Amino acid sequence: MIPMEQRELGRTGRNVSVVGQGTWQLGGDWGEVREEDALGVLDAAVEAGVTFFDTADVYGDGRSEQLIGRYLKERPDAGVFVATKMGRRADQVPENYTLDNFRAWNDRSRANLGVDTLDLVQLHCPPTPVYSRDEVYDALDTLVAEERVAAYAVSVETCAEALTAIARPGVASVQIILNPFRLKPLDEVLPAARAAGVGIIARVPLASGLLSGKYTADTVFAPGDHRTYNRHGEAFDQGETFSGVDYEAGVEAAASFARLAPEGATPAQTALRWVIQQPGVTSVIPGARSTEQARANAAAAALAPLPQSTLDAVRDLYDRTFRAAVHDRW
Fold first, then answer.
1. Does residue 66 contact residue 59 with C-beta atoms inside 8 Å?
2. Of 21, 142, 147, 244, which residue is the least packed, with the fewest Cβ within 10 Å?
């Protein structure tokens, strides 16, 4: 196993690798992934120094959690911290975010992962009013008291939701979209999290693959891939697909971003390195569908910090291409 920088994940008191492994892809919403390939991705990530897996109960209707559970049963020495999410299996109304439902969802995730206590459970982008309800946090505190979970957190769509959650003393971390095409969390969310001792988990770091520079305006994705069926937010929040940016504009911007990659680094690794060095970020969680992708993602942690000239160029590219549209949405 290759050593990787570890950072404390907010109020959990636990350290995790600066590059984690997102496992949405292993559930099947990015095209079919065979079980042996999925397990190979997890193993390649761990061998490359990853100690943090992020999943959710809806990824493949539990398939992602089950695959992680199987892998960790076979590799009890892996030393992986697993964060899962709950809430999206029910109708998205605030009234469904109750202690009884939390216990039921928690029971299913613990069974899928094969553990008695979850390392971390995150509310999975619930309706906005949920973040402000005292009874929701009381219920989450009960899960901790019952030793069903060691800590709880939130995954958010907007900066306002993140700031509301950060103000709650029991919230260990916030998961939010952050990448060179989505800079708004840098303004208030990351500074507030640092001040409160709350961890930041950065998701969609490659803008659903746009920042890899591999796609063109003519690229066709599989029908079961969310990059086909959710491009305009038809199934869930548009921000989860290409970070909510227009695809054609994103392809053009990705070509410009690729030219910023330092010698020996891919555009995807450059994007991950950019996220890693943002003050307040604990871990970035790119997904992978192959062992090669998992290893390449992990290798971004070993890159030298990007110089200020590159950081300035990223900001300029964002301002010229996305700033107005993204700020209007957020």
1. no
2. 147
